[in-house]
Amino acid sequence: MGTLVLNPIAFSIGALQVHWYGLILGSGALAGLLLAIWEGKRFKIPQEFFMDLLLFGVPSAIVGARIYFVAFKWDDYKDNLWDIFKIWNGGIAIYGALIGAIISAVILVRKRGYNFWRIADISAPSLFIGQIIGRWGNFVNQEAYGGETTEAFLRDYLHLPTFIVNQMNIEGVFRHPTFLYESVWNLIGLFLLLILRRRKSLRAGELFCSYFIWYSIGRFFIEALRTDSLAFQGADWLASFINGLWSPMVWLGFEQGYLAPSYGNVRISQLLALLIVVVAVLFIILRRKTIPDLPRYLDPIVSTKASEMDSLAAPMPAQEAKAASEQDNKAISAEEANSHPKPDSTEDKKE
């Protein structure tokens, strides 16, 4: 942590300190919720469903992100277990957050009777807007930054405002604002998804896959600029292959952030990003070829749970209603007959 230009603590209530990091993440989640609710209205999905999705999704994402990060940095936490819970100091992995959120969403969506891919498509732009805003929490904390650069590169080449340039001066060395690169990349991705989801040819699940494709492409190139990447010691050919794919960034004037050889030579997020892009593209292609009647994004969304409730509450057809009415009349006639006493046959004979 270098010399902070911005105070990471927004305000204090007694001994309780409220950090900008948490407020920014919360703002991103709220903005994503509002965007999902707005789109959900087109499909007549109640806003309470998306609120529940956020209510369960955010804690699951935080837990998943922290578990993912701590698992790869276990040596830093095994002797200080309490530090595992200090998420306000940073140290969460976005892919872990996505895993946690998706697991939570699958459970809730199925419980409510919706198709997961339909809800995932609606939520995809919300994931982008949450990341666009949330990355600025890294900016305030001076974390997730890139390798060394120069003030001239930031001011004159990238034309960044002074408040960003000053905050990127960490311990007397200017660093690449990778938080900003990712935020801008995701902003472009958000606009692309908003345009793509209006296309009539778009099938269910493909907007969600498009989110992963676009985000992972950007993450592959941005991750190599960072100096805090999770990494492992992989085969030399794999490291060379990844570095070769990244080489166009050199033409743009960027250099990879330092990664200690003893720590590893393959950045986990880069490798995972490549795998996600390949899997997502194959998923879209194979799904279209093997499932001819895939629903489209613009098709109505119906909850099977709602259908069951509607069928129970729906009026019976005319024939069924008539038959039920006749049975009721017979039952009433039988009850009335039983209510009158029968004449005593013995007395009749005596008379």
From TrEMBL:
Domain of life: Bacteria
Keywords from the named record: Cell membrane, Membrane, Transferase, Transmembrane, Transmembrane helix
Enzyme Commission number(s) from the entry: 2.5.1.145
Bilayer topology term: Multi-pass membrane protein
Biased composition annotated in UniProt, kind: Low complexity: 313-322
Location, primary (coarse class): membrane
Biased composition (Basic and acidic residues): 337-351
The protein's annotated pathway: Protein modification; lipoprotein biosynthesis (diacylglyceryl transfer)
Family from the record: Belongs to the Lgt family.
Protein name per Swiss-Prot or TrEMBL: Phosphatidylglycerol--prolipoprotein diacylglyceryl transferase
Organism per entry: Paenibacillus aceti
